[in-house]
Design a protein that fits this description.
By secondary structure, this protein is mostly helical. It has a domain at 38-115. The chain is built from 4 helices and no strands. Helix 2 packs across helix 3.
């Protein structure tokens, strides 16, 4: 059981996880706000897709950190988050594939996603 003195810290710990996710979805990763999507159903689908992408990037970051541990700064915190490390790795891995599509294929895929 959590004491009354520990309850606010416990609550803040839960909130911090959500803040970290929103930071990754917005300015620290996926730039969700730049999409300007406002239609409720499209926004719901976009958030579901971004949640999957976030989990994939985080899992990749965990896997990479097991291969080579993250470097710590003088204050003891990692230079980059597990999410950022995984996202950067996935970008390096997947972006070259964009050049292998026929011209217009990638645009067609994006158009398809915007209609779903």
């Amino acid at each position: 059981m959590v004491s009354e003195a520990e309850a606010p810290l416990s609550d803040y710990g839960l909130r911090w996880g959500i803040e970290t996710l929103f930071g990754a979805l917005k300015s620290r990763g996926f730039c969700l706000e730049a999409t300007h999507v406002v239609a409720e159903e499209r926004l719901s689908r976009l958030l579901a897709l971004l949640a999957i992408a976030f989990c994939w990037a985080f899992a990749a970051g965990v896997w990479l950190s097991r291969q080579t541990p993250l470097k710590l700064k003088k204050h003891g915190r990692a230079a980059v988050s597990l999410f950022r490390r995984g996202l950067d790795w996935l970008r390096r891995l997947l972006l070259p594939l964009c050049g292998q599509f026929r011209q217009g294929d990638f645009q067609d895929a994006l158009q398809f996603l915007s209609c779903t």
